[in-house]
């Protein structure tokens, strides 16, 4: 069922004080109207609540054809700051993830004010005594910008006041500011009837249901796969669609937030004839969890196991990485390169500040913010890329904040990753040897704005003098795709190295996300060093949901944690809710 969400289109006009209105700045009209939007579930219906809009100084409130128009007047136009706000009362009577989308722009500056307007969004308690959440948006471009926020849990299940302040600086001028497409909706990333895809020639099957918080999977053979369960530290085996009675491995893991059993890759070693299973997890000493000793864990560790019948045996520790402070940006995805080396990724482990995070005067890298490359025995690959000292000698890339996706292009052998931004600026990157992703100085194509991490800083200049380059060995490059808004949480990336869906999809890139439940599809350029993007995506930036639509291949999956191609040539999608979906031809 298609529901409606509400767009608030706000037009604000300032008139210079030579008219009779010289004591007032006229702030134009506000229109509230319903617009279709492809989300299911609606948090609020603002048209029902229009009477609650409270401009600071209101003149007219009119309603025509269902559109609400409010004219606002502010006092003292010659004051340096003009500030007006709209307020409405909402009831966030629902525990689903609420997302706020705001498209805004300022236009037609005939006499430029000293600064472009700022929009300040606030969610307050119902008595207006406490600010529960706020964000500031500054228009830097004059074109339509978009911000998407995931609202925090402290605004759920209660009536709240929702305010937008419009702040101009430098006095009134002939200018028009428009604030439009404000969506506050309950976002359902998981559809009741199951996920849907856009191509009628393909269909989704439920391959397996009932895993507990699975994070990664790897195929041992046709209809035979291993799946990791994050909080149990288990490696489960599913043969011919049946979960085996006992896991092939059960280790002790920390479980808070992004900690746990995180990554798997496997390979048949040609010299030993053994099947190696590489596992990455946040290890604890004696049991799962962090009872009583929240921070007591052994580290983020990568082990190599061997498959022996229905068990994983002979663990060999290949990598022991920082896990403090608890509990995020641990990374953990693993993949085997065309060079047969092992590649894995770790983020900044919740805020490490070293040269690997582009702190020029920082300490030497401590093992965080890296994509690693090492042999299947855990040895350094020579020549090294970024430095010869431990652990930099195993760094393949650096400057990574947080990642849940790594895969090699089967055609070129290029490595690609996905990365998560702070408030916004998730990324898909081509990871060349020695790649610097830019964190903590850059995220997406923007400077990191430390004071307002939810809003993006200026678009970076081409001068990257502020970044660490390890004596010229490291090289920054912009992402090949980035989201200018938050609430995405990009996860798995997988190249579809299969002919089963025809030439159209062969070796294309599929990507998943956590918050939206989207499965994205990308074609690559002819040289395969870029994504094949056109129109408003040619800038490699999804500036709003409308632009993003072109890349969305499926939706309603819930959080996607892994994507793999099976030995049968079909695409498998793993969700955190415990289901594996298989994409197959319809006929
Ligand atoms: Ca366990
Ligand atoms: Ca980056
Ligand atoms: Ca294609
Ligand atoms: Ca764009």
Topology, element by element:
Layout: E1 4-14, E2 24-36, E3 58-64, E4 67-75, E5 81-91, E6 98-107, E7 115-125, E8 131-138, E9 145-150, E10 159-169, E11 175-186, E12 196-197, E13 202-209, E14 214-221, E15 224-229, E16 234-239, E17 242-243, E18 249-250, E19 261-268, E20 275-283, E21 299-308, E22 311-321, E23 334-336, E24 342-346, E25 370-374, E26 395-398, E27 405-408, E28 415-419, E29 427-431, E30 435-436, E31 442-443, E32 446-447, E33 475-476, E34 481-483, E35 490-495, E36 509-513, E37 519-522, E38 541-542, H1 545-548, E39 552-555, E40 560-565, E41 571-575, E42 579-585
Parallel strand pairs: 26-30, 30-33, 34-38
Antiparallel strand pairs: 1-2, 1-11, 2-4, 3-4, 5-10, 6-9, 6-11, 7-8, 7-10, 12-39, 13-42, 14-15, 15-16, 16-17, 16-18, 19-20, 20-21, 21-22, 23-24, 24-25, 25-26, 27-28, 28-29, 29-34, 31-32, 35-36, 36-37, 37-39, 40-41, 41-42
Bound molecules: calcium ion (4 copies).
What ligands are attached or bound here?
calcium ion
Q: How is the main sheet built?
A: 7 strands, antiparallel
Apparent shape: globular
Which superfamily, in CATH terms, is the homologous superfamily of the largest domain?
Answer: TolB, C-terminal domain
Number of individual domains: 2
Strand order in the sheet with the most strands: 3-4-2-1-11-6-9
CATH architecture designation of the largest domain: 6 Propeller
Instruction: Look up the CATH topology of the largest domain.
Output: Neuraminidase
Radius of gyration, CA atoms, in whole angstroms: 26 Å
Share of β-strand residues: 35-45%
Let me know the number of strands.
42
Q: Please report the first level of CATH classification, the CATH class of the largest domain.
A: Mainly Beta
What is the residue-mean pLDDT, rounded to a whole number? 78
> Residue ranges: pLDDT <50 for 5 or more in a row?
1-82, 93-97, 103-114, 170-186
Percent of residues in helices comes to under 10%
Given the structure, what is the number of helices?
A: 1
Structural class: mainly beta
Q: How many angstroms does the end-to-end distance come to?
A: 26 Å
């Amino acid at each position: 069922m298609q529901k409606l969400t509400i767009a608030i289109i706000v037009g604000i006009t300032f008139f210079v004080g030579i008219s009779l209105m010289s004591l007032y700045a006229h702030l134009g009209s506000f229109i509230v109207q319903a617009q279709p939007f492809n989300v299911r579930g609606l948090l609020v219906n603002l048209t029902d609540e229009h009477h609650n809009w409270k401009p600071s100084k209101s003149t007219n409130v009119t309603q025509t054809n269902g559109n609400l128009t409010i004219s606002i007047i502010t006092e003292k136009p010659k004051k340096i700051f003009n500030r007006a706000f709209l307020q409405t009362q909402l009831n966030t009577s629902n525990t689903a993830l609420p997302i706020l989308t705001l498209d805004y722009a300022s236009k037609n500056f005939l006499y430029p004010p000293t600064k472009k307007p700022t929009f300040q969004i606030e969610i307050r308690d119902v008595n207006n005594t406490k600010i529960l959440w706020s964000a500031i948006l500054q228009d830097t471009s004059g074109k339509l910008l978009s911000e998407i926020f995931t609202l925090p849990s402290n605004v759920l299940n209660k009536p709240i006041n929702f305010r937008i302040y419009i702040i101009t600086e430098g006095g009134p001028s002939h200018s028009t500011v428009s604030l439009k497409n404000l969506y506050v909706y309950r976002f359902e990333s998981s559809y009741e009837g199951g996920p849907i895809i856009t191509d009628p020639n393909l269909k989704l099957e439920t391959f397996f249901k009932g895993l507990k918080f699975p994070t990664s999977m790897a195929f041992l053979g046709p209809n035979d796969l291993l799946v990791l369960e994050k909080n149990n530290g288990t490696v489960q085996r599913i043969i011919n669609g049946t979960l085996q009675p006992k896991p092939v491995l059960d280790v002790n893991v920390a479980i808070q937030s992004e900690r746990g059993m995180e990554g798997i890759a496997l390979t048949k070693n040609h010299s030993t004839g053994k099947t190696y299973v590489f596992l990455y997890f946040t290890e604890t000493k004696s049991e799962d969890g962090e009872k009583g000793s929240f921070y007591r864990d052994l580290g983020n560790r990568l082990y190599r196991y061997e498959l022996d019948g229905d068990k994983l045996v002979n663990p060999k520790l290949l990598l022991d990485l920082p896990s403090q402070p608890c509990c995020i940006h641990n990374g953990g995805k693993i993949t085997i390169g065309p060079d047969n080396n092992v590649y894995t990724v770790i983020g900044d482990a919740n805020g490490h500040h070293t040269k690997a995070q582009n702190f020029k005067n920082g300490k030497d890298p401590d093992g965080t913010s890296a994509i690693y490359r090492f042999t299947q025995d855990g040895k350094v690959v020579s020549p090294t890329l970024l430095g010869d000292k431990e652990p930099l000698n195993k760094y393949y890339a650096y400057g990574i904040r947080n990642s849940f996706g790594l895969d090699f292009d089967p055609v070129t052998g290029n490595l690609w990753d996905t990365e998560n931004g702070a408030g916004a600026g998730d990324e898909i990157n081509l990871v060349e040897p020695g790649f610097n992703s830019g964190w903590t100085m850059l995220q997406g194509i923007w400077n990191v704005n430390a004071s307002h991490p939810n809003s993006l800083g200026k678009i970076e200049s081409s001068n990257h003098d502020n970044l660490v380059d390890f004596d010229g060995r490291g090289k920054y490059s912009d992402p090949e795709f980035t989201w200018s808004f938050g609430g995405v949480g990009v996860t798995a990336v997988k190249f579809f190295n299969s002919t089963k869906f025809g030439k159209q999809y062969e070796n294309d890139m599929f990507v998943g996300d956590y918050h939206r439940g989207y499965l994205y599809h990308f074609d690559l350029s002819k040289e395969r060093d870029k994504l094949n993007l056109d129109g408003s995506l040619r800038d490699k930036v999804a500036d709003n949901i409308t632009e993003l639509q072109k890349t969305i291949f499926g939706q309603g999956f819930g959080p996607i944690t892994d994507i793999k191609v099976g030995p049968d040539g079909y695409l498998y999608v793993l969700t955190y809710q415990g289901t594996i979906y298989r994409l197959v031809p319809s006929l």
